[in-house]
Amino acid sequence: MTNLIEVYDCDVNFDFLKDIQSKLKDGEIKYGDNKPIVDKSVKSSKEYGFKPDDPRLISYRNHLQKCLEKYMKKYHHIVHHPHFNVIENINYQVYEPGDGYFNWHFEDIDIGRVLVFTTYLTDTKDAGTEFCYQNYKSECKKGTTLIWPAYWTHTHRGMISNTDRKEILTGWFTTTGKVSN
Q1: CB atoms < 10 A from the CB of 122, how many?
Q2: Spatial separation of the C-alpha atoms in residues 26 and 90, rounded to whole Å
Q3: Order of strands across the sheet with 156-158?
Q4: What are 108-150's pLDDT values in tens digits?
Q5: What separation in angstroms does the CA of 110 have from each of 68, 74, 127?
Q6: Rounded CA gap, 90 and 53, in Å?
Q7: Rg (CA), the chain
Q8: How far apart are CA 88 and CA 142, in angstroms?
């Protein structure tokens, strides 16, 4: 890929997500340190947050680690950034036809997010992610993981399918406050 947006293949078995369907709640948005809110004019979805150490995510976390290592090898100066890890929930998000994250946004608003990851769990035509400054639209192709910087330089929004369901797992590598050697 280009512009610090990298694409990786994911062959993790996500069958355990079938058991989560009854636990999905309205998707929330969070601005900085403010309390998360539901605002369907900005984001309309159903979601479930997995704790990063949830044992059901072991294979997925291994996949993310391999992706991160490839990313850091390509963009090797990132090793000078303070340590970061997945410390926030990993969100399973479901977008029914017409749902999506409608507004342009970026992921780090003074909360230490460094990189974003998204894995598409469905093949959904015209429902990937659109990046504002990179003039790039990803495809929502099952088994694809994207990683990109969490900063304003990678302002993005969801592409909306009016006909098909879109499912993703998404989250962040966030600063842990430790200084890198």
Answers
A1: 17
A2: 15
A3: 136-137, 129-131, 156-158
A4: 877 889 999 999 999 999 999 999 999 999 999 999 999 999 9
A5: 22, 26, 29
A6: 10
A7: 15
A8: 24
